[in-house]
Specification:
315 residues; alpha/beta; 2 domains; 14% strand; elongated
Length: 315
């Protein structure tokens, strides 16, 4: 029995809407919207103060902060402006620039120094004729490195605290400017290995999207604002849309990066195969040259080198 086919016009199917990211209990702190929600709002000041106090433990104690502007235009139209993730000052006027860097850049260290230099030069008194004694406030750049490590560092080191030192004595020369790089990839501690409060902060940030609920080892009151603001259920519809857009943007960038790495790897493997074949061919030619020099029969050279008659005659 032959199968009958219908000639009736089928109704057009509606296009499926793009799939939204599957929500987790807590938001990813390293996407743009979430990072600013957790560290750059009035409600999140206790979070940033708590984290900074652990990063600078034993050196500074921060009791209050004021957020600064994120956009820093150049001095003139030729000078490129910069945009920071979060900027703030404490009660003493110290400047903090906090950012997330997802992937390595060729001049990443230079960029961090440029950020610090902008915060330094903006302290200059710009009132014409007004005297200034060049006394500077402290400036610190704190960078969370999400998916890469700094070159020439120990795999076990996850916090790198950089300042100006005397090359020959190793003593600190100037301590009012610092670069602090926190490698999230190198932070691999388990819950039972969390020794310091900074360890707990870093663990919370790194594993926030993995938690189904707040874990008991992060029940301290200093973490209350973090888990409250990071709870996906506490976002309104507009905030959820903004977060999902940030999340998809991050995923798109990661997919582009992964494809570029995969393509480069394939090209590298193909190049290696070509070079290997060229090397093997050159070795056969060298053997053939030696056999010709010894007046070996052509048939024998072809047998042992697998070269054609034309290839041997061309040597």
């Amino acid at each position: 029995m032959q199968e009958q086919t219908s000639t009736a016009v089928q109704p057009k199917q509606k296009r499926r809407a793009k799939a939204k990211p599957k929500p987790t209990t807590f938001i990813d702190p390293f996407v743009d919207f979430a990072f600013k929600r957790l560290f750059a709002s009035n409600e999140s000041k206790p979070i940033l103060i708590g984290l900074l106090n652990q990063i600078f433990k034993g050196r500074k104690y921060i009791t209050a902060i004021n957020y600064g502007k994120n956009e820093h235009p150049g001095e003139n139209f030729k000078e490129r402006g910069v945009v920071f993730d979060v900027t703030c000052t404490d009660a003493d006027g110290s400047n903090f620039i906090i950012e997330v860097q997802r992937a390595s850049q060729e001049f990443f260290i230079d960029r961090a120094l440029y950020y610090a230099s902008k915060a330094i030069t903006e302290q200059a008194v710009k009132v014409k004729g007004k005297k200034w004694n060049y006394k500077l406030k402290e400036v610190y750049v704190v960078s969370f490195l999400e998916n890469f490590r700094l070159p020439n560092t120990l795999p076990s080191a996850y916090v790198h605290d950089i300042c100006l030192t005397n090359r020959y004595t190793g003593k600190i020369f100037y301590d009012k400017m610092g670069l602090i790089f926190i490698e999230m990839l190198s932070f691999v501690k388990s819950p039972i290995e969390l020794e310091t409060d900074l360890d707990k902060w870093l663990y919370a940030l790194k594993h926030l999207t993995e938690f189904k609920e707040r874990p008991p080892y992060l029940n301290g009151s200093e973490f209350d604002p973090l888990f409250d603001l990071a709870n996906y259920a506490n976002l309104n519809e507009e905030e959820r849309n903004m977060y999902n857009d940030s999340l998809k943007y991050k995923w798109d960038n990661e997919n582009v990066m992964d494809y570029a790495i995969k393509t480069a790897k394939q090209e590298g493997e193909q190049k290696a195969r070509v070079e290997e074949r060229a090397k093997a061919l050159e070795e056969k030619r060298e053997i053939a040259r030696e056999m010709l020099a010894d007046n070996e029969p052509i048939e024998k050279i072809i047998k042992y080198t697998k070269l054609s008659l034309a290839e041997i005659q061309a040597l």
